[in-house]
């Protein structure tokens, strides 16, 4: 997979050396089940048309630049992790657009002309709620007009699980409230982070990208994976933790002698430090229903 960083203004060199492709559009934080459906659809079309499969994403998240509403500054999949996932899926070209105030001000039709048609895009695939261009005036309906017949457009409809829209926003809410056990329903797997596990006597610290989105303070059951070895442990998250560091206590076995690449899977919430029985285990309305006389 080739990763191509795109800065404003888009250079003639990148346009002239681009390859005809099917382009999947989105920020793709988490690469959840909804994102996977978009990329799977784009991949199927690319195979049918014998074209390269391309993905266009942005860095940083647009809300960090536009600063309107809730800002996303931490990620379930920092860029290096996102690249690994895309490569495993079979993406041929990853375009990473450096999102800044100049890019945010590009009119929707100009964005299509330069960043899609200009990169030899022959077919675009995106989710039903995808927006682009200045003030998000471009949407999937507008894209049909902005394409001007120069490429095809496929819209992937809303993906739902348990009557909830599968979205990065929902996943961040689950993680930020400690409900890590609910994440696989929408992500397709347990939430995981990876880094370098270091041992200091009987204690372990996982050093991770400081841009990772971490669950709220509390104690969590986790699984640690080092190569072919998997062991259970407890990760305690506190407000005093240093950025990019997680403390893990293993339930059995030695994980490493000094340091090793490792993955941490968040499996279950155990308790927060105030022992709040409501926290992260069920919605309040669910708990209230369970307390009614049977």
UniProtKB/TrEMBL annotation:
Keywords tagged on the record: ATP-binding, FAD, Flavoprotein, FMN, Nucleotide-binding, Nucleotidyltransferase, Transferase
Enzyme Commission no: 2.7.7.2
Any GO MF annotation of the entry: FMN adenylyltransferase activity
Gene3D superfamilies (alphabetical): HUPs
Organism domain of life: Bacteria
InterPro entries: Cyt_trans-like, FAD_synthase, Riboflavin_kinase, Rossmann-like_a/b/a_fold
Family according to the record: Belongs to the RibF family.
Protein name as catalogued: FAD synthase
Taxonomic lineage of the native organism: Bacteria, Bacillati, Bacillota, Bacilli, Bacillales
